[in-house]
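Replying to the earlier thread about multi-chain prediction with a worked example.

Input:
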Amino acid sequence: MSVMVLQVFVSLMLVLGSVLLLAISVKSDDHEHADRLSLLPFEHERKSPASKRRKP
Amino acid sequence: MDAIATAPETIPARTREEHARCRHCRGPIPAGSILDGFCCNGCSAVFSLLHEQGLERYYDLAGGGTMPVAEPRGERSFAWLDPLLRRSEEGGAEICALDLDVQGIHCAACVWLMDELFRRREGGAGLLVNPALGKVRLTWRRGRFDPRAFLEEVERFGYLFGPSRKKADGASRSLLLRLGVTAAIAMNVMIFSVAFYLGLGAEDRLFRLFTELSVWLSTAVVVVGGWPFFKASWHSIKRGVLHLDLPIALGIVLVYVTSLIQARGDEALFYFDTLNVFVTLMLVGRWLQQRVLDHNRRYLLEEAGADGILVRRREGGELVTVAAPSIRKGDHLVAAPGDLVPVDAQSLQAGAFSTDWITGEAEVREVGVGEKVPAGSFNAGSRAAMLLATQDFEESPLPALLRTTTRADLEHRPPHARFWDSLARIYVVAVLAIAALGLGIWWPVDPKRALEVTAALLVVTCPCALGIAIPLAHELAQARLRRAGVFVRRQGFLERLPRVRRLLFDKTGTLTLGRLQLVDPAIVHSLSPEARDAAFDMASRSNHPVSRCIAAVLSRAGARFSADAVVDEHPGLGLELRRDGKTYRLGKASWAARAGGPAATVLSIDGEPLATFRTEETVRADARREIAALERNGLEVWLLSGDASPRVEALAERLGIDPARALGELTPEGKARIVEGLDDHDTLYLGDGVNDSLAFEKAACAGTPAVDRPVLPGKSDFFLLGEGIAGLREALETSRLLRKVVVRLIAVAVTYNLLAVSVSLAGWMTPLRAAIVMPLSSIAVLLFTAFSLDAKSREPRRRPRAAPAPEPAR
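Result:
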């Protein structure tokens, strides 16, 4: 019995946590592009511009 | 043997596919386009630039999600940037910061591109790009970085910057938060419900706990998730109309109340799980609808009307940037190349002005000292122009044309809404009547059972198809239109579109591209290589539209550029180059050639004419085909322009438009009067100039291809990207398909409800059966919608069906 109540309590806390995280993400306006930013390469493009490459 | 036999079949097919798609944006190439492998000049220029600068990785990151690029119209005004830069650099801080809005950003590749261009410059401290909102924050070390040069460089890739005005839409954010709360709670309530379905009874000690939790959590869902529907319903009732949200709100309240009553008993005969899922699905539908429109709106810069137009004014010895409404008669103005002149002014020096935005004239006007420059002109020259304002801004025609919100916007009730109003009314009356019928039939038999039947009836009649499937249908239709280059900005546009029977086009910049082309491009091949090089040296050093057109043709013909050539520009006359003791001139016939000549641009050597370049407006590649196809589909096509009537008639003839429907020399008010006279909630106006602004307000639907000019994008129901107008026909067809799908969805919903109501009236519906049947019916309508509007199986047209032969090249 007490285990069930504890489980319900924990699950509701998890729900509350997830909702809070969503609220923070929405407030900081990164909820829509966080996934996109995470796809960006870590390293910068190593190629130099063509104009530089053409130099002898 | 087989391989040899199949090779000719497969390779050409793949080659055709390669050629049918733009190499930059992968969008459809307009039929008849002269560009090899590109849908428009903008895409072609950006493709070259990316390769030239070693930025090909952009395409890997974009993953095929690139969008067409608006072609830059020469110089663009940066008058808005001066005060922002001054403010950023005020104070003595080492690091300066600037927040800006950006137009055209759509994916991670755009972020990478900007970041890469920023990284290549010295002195930059940081660049933070928010592609969701279309904003950037630029920081740099004072005196070691040129923000203007950086912004100009990025704009060459098709983006546009503007002052920071975009804000996250509060309604959209609140909807997302409500959806998050509702979805999280719904999942928990469903878990509790499983216990009830598996036999948790009143004798179990957990029964009360789970029932209480279901009640309280469902109350939270009704309050948080139901609020947008309650609010919209209440507003609609106050206005005396029935909104589509009313049946949804009614469904939520009735199911909640009946479940609450049932929860007081000793049996788990309540529908809290179904209620939670229903509210969540309704919110998903609403959020989907809002999200697409927000996304399309944020793609563009935010409009600020007249206050957003900034002008440089001389105040004593200083040049001050001020908002257009503060301009008074007698002010001395300085218009840099690309700047807008907001009032009628007198030119204090010779210059060139483009008036297509205000008058629809395609040609650039040469203005001499003391001559009038009309309000709404853009400086099309290569130098700043000194002007004297001859009227206050309030007296100028621009304030009326720049108005962004009209009374009509607020009061006009589009006819498509009537359909939803009557549907909502029928729905509300039917639901209440059926619930009363159930109660009436079962009450004499067993009052407790009567309550159960009524609860079941209210649950099964929840308008799931309306709340989730129809928004999904809109989302899919809009996704399809985005692939065709049509971006919907306003709610209700796709519902109004199937009624359209009359299409009204502006001329310059809409059916034409606002740039010139040579009537006979082969004439450059008759020139000697020396004359070609001399002409190219002159034409490529001028910003004049005729020069740009001649330079482009000469460049394709292989003319060579000499960096050390000294070219004199004679304003209003032409260009002059001295080389090897000879004088080359490119300009007006009366000036370039001793004997004069026709009204065309002449290339001469020592006064002897070598070639005469006649120009004409460049018509959009697929305009003739599309207009013919639209007319064959029963639509009336009109051409309304402020340009001279003979030019309008000539273009109408070229495009196959009935001359009786081609009207020229129209003022903005004249255009609006014609649209008002023709409109029976069935007109669509496509224009690009501020002179189309009043006509926009009178037409049932309005759109623009000019996303790089102020005002009109903010007033449009939709905007077009790319160089063709095929997207318009795609939009008309998609809107009709969408209407069909919506009607079928309603038919499916009615059939399902009839069956479910019969089962409920017979007393066979239980919470468990409802929990199975309702999600199943929702999934069925969603699959039906997805199948009907599947973007992959119904690709936007690449070539129009049964289109006539292209116009022969001249």
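Helices of chain A lie at 2-27, 34-38, 50-54.

Feel free to reuse this layout for your own posts.
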